Each structure stands twice: as structure tokens, then as C-alpha cells.
Amino acid sequence: MKKILFSALVVLCSYASYAQLQNADKVYSDQKYDNQNKDTIAWVKNATFNLGGNQTLLHNWAAGGELASLVVNSRLDANLFRYYGRHIWSNNLLMAYGVQANYSTNFEPRKIDDRIDFTSKYGYRLKENGNWYMTGLLNARTQFAKGYSNYDVPDWRNNSSSDFLSPLYLMVSPGIEYRKGEMFSVFFSPAAGRMTFVDRFYTSQSPEGAFGVKKDETTRFELGAYLSARFSKDLVKNLQLKSRLDLYSNYLAKDVRDSVGTIVKKDNPGNIDIMFDNLLTYQFMKYFNVGFALTAIYDNDIPYVPAFDAQGNKIKEPIGGLGWWQIRQGFTLGFVYNF
Question: What is the pLDDT of residues 288-298, one digit of tens each?
């Protein structure tokens, strides 16, 4: 995993150093840039790195609790834009990783966040001073390290539920996009191709396969409609909100039936995949901030499977009852650096 993290940092540093601003004191919106000099290339870049966490230690504490724990969270948001006349090339990279270690589990690190999400879009403005673009999109999503859904199984180290590039979601789609500067954009494609790549280790564990990929196979192709909306705004000074909503409907989805024709899994274009990602941050004293993050994912190809402890008892979740929905919420106080 160290090699993976190091490689990611090298790629990121190269990515950030490549972008050169012609005027570092002024960030152009696409509308302002088009009205200035259509023969001049403008690069706009920005990146924010957050590192936060908490640590506790208890001794003879009457109220009880975890004797010692350490939590570390990290997140990197990087953006690179290229403007040239009616052309725009935008790149967004999100990398997040967090671990928790407790005394009760011999300080075995356990993930609490793990994401790699890269989007690249190239668009051509339909009208000289308009906000509509014909756009091509490439998106890739995966994770850094192995994930485990149930640590109460005695041999949980040999029963990972995911890994680096397993799954890997790769989407390529042409479409149309509405952009209002860098604050708001909506992209829609009626013909978005999506590939899912998974190691055979995970698809061989269940009769239904894994992540929508059939048993003992490693890839799945989908064709459907895709909508992606992004919003970023400073609500007040030093308080920023970033939101993203992705919707995907697979035209090729079909209900799964058993040998006698009974539906055992409903899967049709009406089962829309949803990802709703939100980050609210407040920066203070230049290098510190507090952040609240909430991500909600619905994917019919990743069914809800309740976890059980070593005695076979169902583990009660703090926010149980949400079924297929995947929820991650976090609050962080830490260090921030803006590139």
C-alpha cells in the first residue's frame, strides 16, 4: 500500500506542477476568459489538501470507553482547467484515505475512508458567449487498499470484500453540458458506456458474482443514461460547500430469474444508481479547518448483506434500516493546505 500511496503522490505532484497560470493573482471564469483574448491559452489550477484526526487515552476512567484510539483522515481535491477560445478541458481529482486504530483490536488499522475518483471532460461551446457545451467525459473510480466488511469473522484477513482496482468503474460518454463558470455544471449523456472491472477472487465467492459482474467473470459492460451535477460555492467568507450528484440508468439491466422463472433479483433501467457527495468546510487561522462530509450511494448491484458476529448474532448498526443505501458521514478538525 505504501508503494501505491507514493505513486499516487508522485502523479499528483506532476499533475499540479504541469499547470501554469499566466496570472496567478486572478482566476478567470470561462465567461470572462472568452471575452478577453480568444487566442491566448489560460490554465487555471487549484488544489486543497486536508489532514485531520483525533487521539484518545484513558486510565482508570470511571465512565469507561475505548482505552486508547487513533484516527487519521486525509483528503485531496485537485482541479486543472484549460481554456482556449470556445474550448475547455477540465480535470477533477479526488483522493481520500482514513484509518482508525483501537487498543481493543491491538491497534490493527481499519479503514474508515478510501476513494480515488478522477473525471476529465473536454467541451466545445455551442455559442460564443453561451453556457452550453458539447462534451466528452471520462471518469474512473476505485480505491487504494483492501476493504473488509466484517471484522468479526475469525479469518477476516482472508475475506476482503474489495481491493485496489477491484472494483474499477470506468465510464466514457459523449453528451451536453451546461456550465456557469466554475461554480455550477450539469452534464447529461443519453449513451454512456460503463465498464466494471473486478478480480476473479471476488466474483467467485458468491453465486451472484460481485459488483454486478457475474460469477467467475472479471468485467461487465453497461450502456445507459448518465447525469452528473456539480456545485461549489463560498456560502460566506471561509465557509465553502461542494456537492456532487451522479445518476446512472443501465438500459441493458434485466431482472434475474431462477430456473423456474421466478424473479430473484429486480434489476431494470428503473433501478437508478445514485451517488450524492457533500463536503462543507470552514477554514480558520489560514492552515486549519473543520469539515463535515456526507456521501450516500445507492447501487442495486451491491446488495445489503447484514453482518454477523462470531456467535452468529446480527450486528446492530448505528443507522440501520437503510437497506441498499451506503452511507458515510464524517466530521474532521485538522490541517489544510491550498496549492
Answer: 999 999 999 99
